[in-house]
Give the backbone structure.
Amino acid sequence: MNEPWKFCIEERVRWGDVDAARIIFYGAYIRFFEFAETELFRAAGLAYGVVFDELDIWLPRAHLECDFRRAAQLDDLLEVCAYVGRVGRKSLRLDFEVRRKGEEEMVADAHFVLVAVRRSTFESVPVPEELKRGLARYTRPDLTGSDATEVAAR
């Protein structure tokens, strides 16, 4: 892979993911994105249970956006890639790309905006430096401070 900052998993489209036409139901993508996100954090040495306990934060989603480009079907083997697209002061954006295994054409792409909040109050807090350092390996390399956009913490 010529983009080593992307963390990828493989997931097969299963019977429970499709409609009567055997085409993937859009909601199934969210589950695939969550799998990729969880494993990205684990690969970065930041398993969620540890992150939440040690950093005393939650990372709720403030925004989710997805574009569906091609229909995935029952039994397709998908490659779901995740990476950090932007880091703001109190939020970070995770980008996702979905392709059929071995194909270049995108099936879907999406992004989540996660906001760092204190666990006890849900008040937004700056993204911990430990989190930024841990995710650096999976952060798009052209990301600079001037590229970072901030989503208002809710």
